[in-house]
Amino acid sequence: MDIVLYIGMFIGSLALLLFASDKFIDSAEAIGLSFGISPFIIGVTIVAFGTSLPELATSVAAVLAGDSEIVLGNVIGSNITNIALVMGLVAIAVKQINLEYNIWHIDMPYLWGSAFMLFFMVQDGQIVLFESILLLVGIVIFLAYSFNAENDDDEEKESVSPLTYLWLVAGGALVALSADWTIRAISELSSMAGISPEVIALTAVAIGTSLPEVIVSLNAARKGKTSIAVGNVLGSNIFNTYVVTGVASLVGPVAVTATMLSFGLPFMIVMTILFGIISNNKKITNWEGVLLLFFYAYYLFYNFSNA
Known about the structure:
The chain is mainly α. The chain has one domain: A middle domain of Talin 1 (Up-down Bundle), CATH 1.20.1420. The protein contains twelve helices and two strands. It has a two-stranded antiparallel sheet. Helix 4 (about 70-95) runs antiparallel to helix 10. The protein is globular, with a radius of gyration of 18 Å.
């Protein structure tokens, strides 16, 4: 009976996640366009931060519960998943991603900067108060620059109803809630199948917290809004590094394990650099999507073989 219950919970929460992400995308785009903001910046800010709420919630809860080693594992795993799995699936789904916006203008350098900053910050095995504040200042600068650079006051804007704002809040909340239910269902089903908790933490939970990015990006790509899909991945990774790490380390000490330093962080750096290289010509092709999925398969294989 427990298996049937959790299978039903998984199917129901996944269906809710699909519905909520669809409403979240539509309302976020409508509100952003009403302020003269481009679809890419909508994706890199509003949509990205909304889909990263599960990472923030689970990381803060982990610190409060005394399991702070989950925080960096969550950030690193989610960033790798966003680039390798999400972008790989989107590129294959739409055959080729054509970027209307030059992400090397500010977003990709900022993403690279956030990855390298995190890498060097944790080499001493800890994140001190000054570094936590520095991370949060970094996200404020990024947001200020993004909105100022893309806000076009001369563009004709369409007003939106209060219901659109309600759907934005409700959609974001439902995305986070349904993702949490999905994670619980996956974890329970994995436990019943006899899979070790360590493997569950490295795979099911990491993938579960990235489900909003997967679903939202694929839905955006399906609607022809690839700018939102790419912006979602960029913004989510920037949010994870600056906000999730910064807020969690303010709540309490964040543990840094040897595995993170020896494999997780270097692999995240490699994937971040690769993301920049393949998007340099303002397009991501089908075979590049396959390459990203190959890297993700290797990442999962390494985690399973070393768990």
